[in-house]
Amino acid sequence: MLFTSRNFWRGKRLSRNFLGLRRFHSRNGLTGLLHDGYFSDLLPPKSVKLRMESGNGMDLSEFLYPALQAADFLYLYENYNCRVQIGGQDQLGNINCGLNLIQRRLGRHAFGLTVPLLTTPDGTKFGKSSSSSEIGSTKLWLSKSKLLPYTFYQQILNFPDSMVSAKLLRQLTFFTPERIDSLMKDHASSSHSRPVQRSLAQELTLLVHGVDGLQSSELATRIFFPRGNSADGRRKRSALDVINEDLDATERNYLMECLRSSSGLLPVINADLPLGQHAVGEWFRQVLLQTADIHSDTTVNLKVCIHKGITLNDVVLFKPSNATSTDLRFAEPDVFTDSALIDRINTAIQRRDSATGLSVLKIGQSFLGFYDCVRSDMH
């Protein structure tokens, strides 16, 4: 739920569950709670029926949870006249336990309100970590402070086709039925162009991160995922080709504004060029450490970055590796003193964009790899 004003919280109260549950710490309190809770209250939910029919059964904690949630509802009803509990559709059974407990204990009526869950076409619940980047498992946060707009945009753009449905479009957008039908037809005929995912990414990024969040994300996507071949036709176009050849002065200036550390729009590392040949290896190691820090997931670290393979300005610095022992060795600082690696880093630095001083760092060899942009001051 989104609240646009702090005034919403005036006169509202946040209550700790402990306050309502502490009276059940004693044997008499717990016995009274269980006496008013019926096993039949748990039977309607499909999940319970499936578990019982599968032969796997359910442990005691799974039965106690609905009872404790019901007790919490009872406490709020008695002390704060709270008559409505709101939850996702998967909470229907728990809410119903609370309604029945209030009816049996107090002889009064309470109410439950459920909202539809976001699900994939096969019915799987769509959680905040349903999508993941190549580098690490990136949660799809709706808070601006939790995820960069570009990462948010890319996460939605890379939804697998298995998550695409007209229902998802109806739940997450205000698209007309005609537009939804058109998008689903486009998806059926040319899913490789990701028409549904792209429209969702645009709509949701605009909603969560605003106009600058969307525009910067689309510009970065255009740079990081270029189409076609180079002018001489000998290789595929790179991100630097787009920066050098495709961006006009206005777009280049806007890109530089988006890369300011204070903007919080794009993944960027502000790093001065290394001072002296002896500092090149350690400089790049620090750049990689900062790259890992950009990701909120704690599983992202130096080993993961190197394991995926690293390219700086189209120069391959580390090839992808599947050997665990190699990963461990790469995590040691000594690997960054290797003369051949330092030569490759120097070559890559010289290839930075001359007009902006920008370098492009690629983690992973997949087309869906996550990219960080490194700004190097000119010396």
UniProtKB/TrEMBL annotation:
<dbReference type="Pfam" id="PF00579">
    <property type="entry name" value="tRNA-synt_1b"/>
</dbReference>
<comment type="similarity">
    <text>Belongs to the class-I aminoacyl-tRNA synthetase family.</text>
</comment>
<dbReference type="InterPro" id="IPR014729">
    <property type="entry name" value="Rossmann-like_a/b/a_fold"/>
</dbReference>
<keyword id="KW-0436">Ligase</keyword>
<keyword id="KW-0067">ATP-binding</keyword>
<dbReference type="InterPro" id="IPR002305">
    <property type="entry name" value="aa-tRNA-synth_Ic"/>
</dbReference>
<keyword id="KW-0547">Nucleotide-binding</keyword>
<dbReference type="GO" id="GO:0006437">
    <property type="term" value="P:tyrosyl-tRNA aminoacylation"/>
</dbReference>
<keyword id="KW-0030">Aminoacyl-tRNA synthetase</keyword>
<keyword id="KW-0648">Protein biosynthesis</keyword>
<dbReference type="GO" id="GO:0005829">
    <property type="term" value="C:cytosol"/>
</dbReference>
<dbReference type="GO" id="GO:0004831">
    <property type="term" value="F:tyrosine-tRNA ligase activity"/>
</dbReference>
<dbReference type="InterPro" id="IPR002307">
    <property type="entry name" value="Tyr-tRNA-ligase"/>
</dbReference>
<dbReference type="GO" id="GO:0005524">
    <property type="term" value="F:ATP binding"/>
</dbReference>
<dbReference type="InterPro" id="IPR024088">
    <property type="entry name" value="Tyr-tRNA-ligase_bac-type"/>
</dbReference>
<protein>
    <recommendedName>
        <fullName>Tyrosine--tRNA ligase</fullName>
        <ecNumber>6.1.1.1</ecNumber>
    </recommendedName>
</protein>
